[in-house]
């Protein structure tokens, strides 16, 4: 069997997330069908991180095993010919059997884009609109408590299937651009809805509905009911996945 890794980008607006669903349109469903056209055999795709309904990916990584032998161009141009315009394979390569798209990943980076404006901008469809002004410095200061290794149960979806709620955040930066902002969050792994739940609580601080110290109290409580609502999916993108250098996965996006 040959193991192939693909680099993938997609606009999540029209998808019910990554993972295949019997009743809905998912990225995994569309990609599996397109790959099987080339492979001419059934196969199973494994991804680095299962994105939720409406969440986007700038750099998603998947792998699959198959008996067919095809040139790497077939897994890029050939597969893209069968994909909708909102999904694109960026690169493909043969990898060792030891490579695993999920378990070989060292860390993941997400970005959450948002903008504050009295009216909604239809051209900012990959960002979340906040109607009221935000205190960005308060949000930045409050987020400092999240760095390091913590039990993130307070920001974990009730349907989360992770064996442990403990995760490590290596960096969390709030970047201001001319007409929008984004949080860039780098961690070893993430719980279901974790980033969107963190954003909901950070927005409470930014809107001065809660003090900066409140976020740390919520984190230490491990109680999801004390945190704010889950923020919308449209502002969230899986931005980058880091692997050991010897796998050469970054080549898929160059």
TrEMBL record:
Gene3D superfamilies: Pseudouridine synthase I, catalytic domain, C-terminal subdomain, Pseudouridine synthase I, catalytic domain, N-terminal subdomain
UniProt keyword annotation of tRNA processing present: yes
UniProt domain Pseudouridine synthase I TruA alpha/beta: residue ranges: 10-103, 144-244
GO MF terms held by the record: tRNA pseudouridine(38-40) synthase activity
Top EC group: isomerase
Keywords: Isomerase, tRNA processing
Chain sites annotated for binding substrate: 110
Domain of life of the organism encoding this protein: Bacteria
EC number: 5.4.99.12
Keyword set includes tRNA processing: yes
Active site per the UniProt annotation: 52
Reaction(s) catalysed (UniProt annotation): uridine(38/39/40) in tRNA = pseudouridine(38/39/40) in tRNA
Function: Formation of pseudouridine at positions 38, 39 and 40 in the anticodon stem and loop of transfer RNAs.
Oligomeric and partner information: Homodimer.
Family of the protein in this entry: Belongs to the tRNA pseudouridine synthase TruA family.
Entry protein name: tRNA pseudouridine synthase A
Species assigned in the record: Limnobacter parvus
Gene: truA
